[in-house]
């Protein structure tokens, strides 16, 4: 009987510690959702969020400018929460970097939806959102890329302001919310 009681007490103690650690990683109560189903293209990805405006952050763990912008997400997350804007983070990382990608998302409290793009989605994003490089004029997807999508699923800004440019981003988001 004592062993059984000791086992039950230990089980609940471990469960409480595990729950506390989870809450520490997300103090605001917001959630991080990893999309694990394969997505064929950008339109099919956006179809999941139809009816709600979406801010898209196309980034990668190896992109230092992308990661520096994470420091400025507090304002964007607050604005998104107040106005029911979906935050969608699309990573260009390779399959081998999945653990690193998830760790960076968690460490930076990137609340919202997260997807590591498969080859089909990457090609569609590159085709639709590439810009000319300053050095050569050749078209390439530039990391980070920020997009604003209206509630009807239309891309209204394919070169949205970065989170650190709060005033410009606020103006751009207000147009999406009209």
Structure report:
The protein is α/β, with parallel strands linked by helices and 178 residues long. It folds into two domains: 1-29; 31-177, Glutaredoxin. The protein has helices at residues 2-25, 42-47, 64-69, 73-83, 98-107, 119-129, 166-177, and strands at 32-34, 54-59, 86-91, 112-116, 131-132, 139-140, 145-149, 155-157. Strands 1-4-3-2-7-8 form a six-stranded mixed β-sheet, with helices on one face. Strands 5-6 form a two-stranded antiparallel sheet. The chain is globular, with a radius of gyration of 19 Å. The N and C termini lie far apart (65 Å). Mean pLDDT is 86; it is low at 3-28.
The coarse overall form would be: globular
What is the CATH H-level superfamily of the largest domain? Glutaredoxin
| Overall number of domains | 2
Sheet with most strands: strand arrangement: 1-4-3-2-7-8
Parts with pLDDT < 50 across at least 5 consecutive residues: 3-28
Question: For the CA atoms, what is the radius of gyration?
Answer: 19 Å
> Could you describe the largest sheet, including whether it forms a barrel?
6 strands, mixed
- The CATH architecture category of the largest domain equals 3-Layer(aba) Sandwich
Count of DSSP strands: 8
Helix content: 40-55%
According to CATH, what is the class of the largest domain? Alpha Beta
Order of secondary-structure elements: HEHEHHEHEHEEEEH
Helices, by number, come to 7
**What is the CATH topology of the largest domain?**
Glutaredoxin
The overall pLDDT, averaged over residues, is 86
């Amino acid at each position: 009987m004592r062993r059984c009681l000791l086992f039950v007490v230990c089980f609940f103690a471990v469960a409480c510690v595990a729950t506390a650690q989870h809450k520490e990683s997300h103090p605001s109560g917001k959630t991080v959702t990893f999309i694990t189903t394969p997505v064929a293209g950008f339109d099919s990805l956006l179809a999941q969020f139809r009816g709600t405006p979406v801010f898209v952050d196309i980034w990668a763990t190896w992109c230092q400018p992308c990661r520096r912008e994470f420091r400025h997400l507090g304002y964007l997350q607050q604005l998104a929460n107040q106005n029911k804007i979906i935050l969608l983070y699309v990573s260009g990382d390779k399959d081998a970097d999945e653990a690193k990608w998830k760790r960076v998302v968690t460490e930076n409290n990137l609340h919202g939806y997260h997807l590591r793009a498969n080859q089909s989605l990457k090609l569609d994003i590159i085709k639709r959102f590439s810009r000319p490089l300053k050095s050569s004029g050749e078209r390439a997807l530039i990391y980070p890329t920020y997009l604003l999508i209206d509630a009807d699923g239309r891309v209204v800004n394919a070169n949205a302001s970065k989170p650190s440019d709060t005033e410009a981003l606020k103006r751009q988001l207000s147009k999406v919310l009209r």
